[in-house]
Amino acid sequence: MSRRGFIVLSVVLDAMLVNASIIAAFFLRFGGELPEFNFGAYVGLWPLITVIYLAAGYIYGLYEPERIEGAWEVVRTTFLAVTLGTVLLAAVAFFAGPRFFSFSRLAIVIGWALSFVLLVGWRVAILRLTSIRWPEQRVLVVGTTELACDLAREIEQRHSWGYHVVGMIAHDATEREATRACAVPVLGTVADVAGIVESQGVTRVIVASPVSLRELIEEMAIGNETDVRVEVIPDLYEILIGRLDSTIADIPLMELTRQSAPAWYASAKRLADIVLSLAVIVVLSPVLLLAALGSLITMGWPILYSQERVGKDMHPFRVYKFRTMVRDAEAHSGPVLAEEDDPRITPFGRFLRTYRIDELPQIFNILLGQMSFVGPRPERPFFVEQHLREIPGYRERFRIKPGVTGLAQVSGGYATTPDRKLKFDLIYLYHQTVLMDVRIMAETVRVVLTGRGAR
């Protein structure tokens, strides 16, 4: 079971057991009956009661395995969470008005006791009596300093909750020879991280050595080959530019591999893509027709051409564009990128490229869900394989759908270098918002009308 799945299970069980406890408390208080006058107060408040108790559990870390250090910590945090929830419930019942003032005070006290027993009990029982366990987290610590050793010890203290330190990483061979690994083996240097992550089944990398951070990012390319959570114990610089994501004991952590956008954003973006693409087809149908006629007259058949491109999660698809080059442009050269003043581009094709009209057939790729209006430009498999070998972090851009336009296209030249484009793609990937999408679309319109950045 994944960490997220276990958290969802915890929330659902807590919500059910808290309400079951309060209902049972009314049965106990009123001799097996549920008097309408008193029980009606609970019926009117149960959604708010559920939110209150879950919020109290969140406050005290019941849904964060990182903050649970052992069985007694479960008892302590559950006691505090249930007590806070009960106090807030009593306050709500008192201040919510005459209708809810009939909420039995004794039922509240009994509910507190039952909730505490059940919320502690299921956590202990489910871990000891079933095969369900806290999701295993195999941690690799980068660094061999005293801070790194402290972190390793804190993690190992949480071994019963799924944590296990597989080893530590020295900055280089010299440090590896000189270091004392505080009872945790030193498995290699920063240059070995990618291989160690794969061979040891590492799910989480924590960087405790700021001097190794840049090299680590370049070596792993921020999750280039593996799906691991990468975190750093922040120095002053990281604190100034980032935010705290979690803690282990009193050690703060910042995650470098967190999701780039919330789930609702992807759904909203897909809906907007469908609506806008249909509108564009209707509004720009005369432009599509004129572009097709112009291509047929000046360059002959075919009007369109399709190429295999690499999309989200490295899945291939075929992209459609108006043809702008001479027929069989790569017959002798093989796959090559477009260059400034590329002789293969026809005069009419250059006009189409200048105003980005050649990209319009990709509207149908958007409708099919293969592309979005905004995102990294889709690249051909030949160049993707080349860039993956040569450019650290290039695989990151495939975490989202490619786009007809993107930050790289409105910020750089048409034939700017792949590594420069990647920087813009990563900026968009990690900071994408609805407002940023709107700004890129607006800038795209300006680029189209002025021909800026086209070749």
Describe the structure.
By secondary structure, the chain is α/β, with parallel strands linked by helices. It is built from 17 helices and eleven strands. It folds into three domains: 3-128, no CATH class; 137-255, 3-Layer(aba) Sandwich (Rossmann fold); 263-450, no CATH class. Helix 8 (210-220) links the parallel strand 4 and strand 5. The longest helix has 27 residues, at 3-29. The protein is flat, with a radius of gyration of 29 Å. The mean pLDDT is 79.
List keywords for this structure.
7-stranded mixed β-sheet, Rossmann fold
Major sheet attributes: 7 strands, mixed
Task: Tell me, rounded to a whole number, the average pLDDT.
Answer: 79
Structural class: alpha/beta
What is the approximate shape? flat
Number of strands: 11
Gyration radius, rounded: 29 Å
Concise synopsis of the structure shown:
With 455 residues, the chain is an alpha/beta fold.
Strands, helices and their partners?
Layout: H1 3-29, H2 36-59, H3 71-95, H4 105-128, E1 137-142, H5 146-156, E2 163-170, H6 173-178, E3 186-189, H7 193-200, E4 204-207, H8 210-220, E5 229-232, H9 236-241, E6 246-248, E7 251-255, H10 263-283, H11 285-299, E8 304-310, E9 316-322, H12 347-354, H13 363-367, E10 372-374, H14 381-390, E11 403-405, H15 407-411, H16 418-431, H17 434-450
Parallel strand pairs: 1-2, 1-4, 2-3, 4-5, 10-11
Antiparallel strand pairs: 5-7, 6-7, 8-9
Helix pairs in contact: 1-2, 1-4, 2-3, 3-4
